[in-house]
Amino acid sequence: DSDNNDKYDFLFKIVLIGDSGVGKTNLMTRYTRNEFSTKSKTTIGVEFASKTIKIDDKIAKLQIWDTAGQERYRAITSAYYRGTVGAVIVFDITKYESFENCRKWIEEVRENAPPNITITLVGNKIDLESIRTVGNEKASTFAKEYGITFFETSALNSTNVEKAFYDHFSNIYQQTK
Ligand code: GDP
């Protein structure tokens, strides 16, 4: 019941960052509702989604915020980052430019988000392996350079989505100890 849903040990707010079209909204809906849409996000219009998970016998309420298109105008304000403990930076493995822009996104996050924020890099759309332009090794080396964890996912067929988010939230949880 709703009373039970409101009992939690931790509330973790995270943001999804990255170029438009890389799959941020669909990663969020796949993870929180097991839903995927081929339509553009204007028709979805979700600002954030919640989910409750168990980590280490503790209940963590997760709030995952989508940029709702703000990234198009490069106008992600520090208000968006208020209270966030994590940022998942997403690129599309078939769009090299979206990978190159991750450097900028990471720096943006480090400038505007609270210090000690946990960052995870995600290369999405691995179901499109045949038209991949960003090599796994290349992205992996890049992530190591920044000391962040890297996952490849598919919001379309669910590959690694659960795993990437769980790892992200586990890292956030470790910081609370
Ligand atoms: P956002 O702008 O970053 O939020 O991206 P969206 O979630 O709106 O996705 C942009 C487009 O990519 C949509 O047409 C999605 O259906 C598609 N898409 C998202 N994730 C995947 C994926 O893992 N694989 C494939 N093939 N398409 C995806």
TrEMBL record:
<dbReference type="GO" id="GO:0005525">
    <property type="term" value="F:GTP binding"/>
</dbReference>
<keyword id="KW-0342">GTP-binding</keyword>
<keyword id="KW-0547">Nucleotide-binding</keyword>
<protein>
    <submittedName>
        <fullName>Ras-related protein rab11</fullName>
    </submittedName>
</protein>
<dbReference type="GO" id="GO:0003924">
    <property type="term" value="F:GTPase activity"/>
</dbReference>
<comment type="similarity">
    <text>Belongs to the small GTPase superfamily. Rab family.</text>
</comment>
<keyword id="KW-0472">Membrane</keyword>
<keyword id="KW-0636">Prenylation</keyword>
<keyword id="KW-0449">Lipoprotein</keyword>
<dbReference type="GO" id="GO:0012505">
    <property type="term" value="C:endomembrane system"/>
</dbReference>
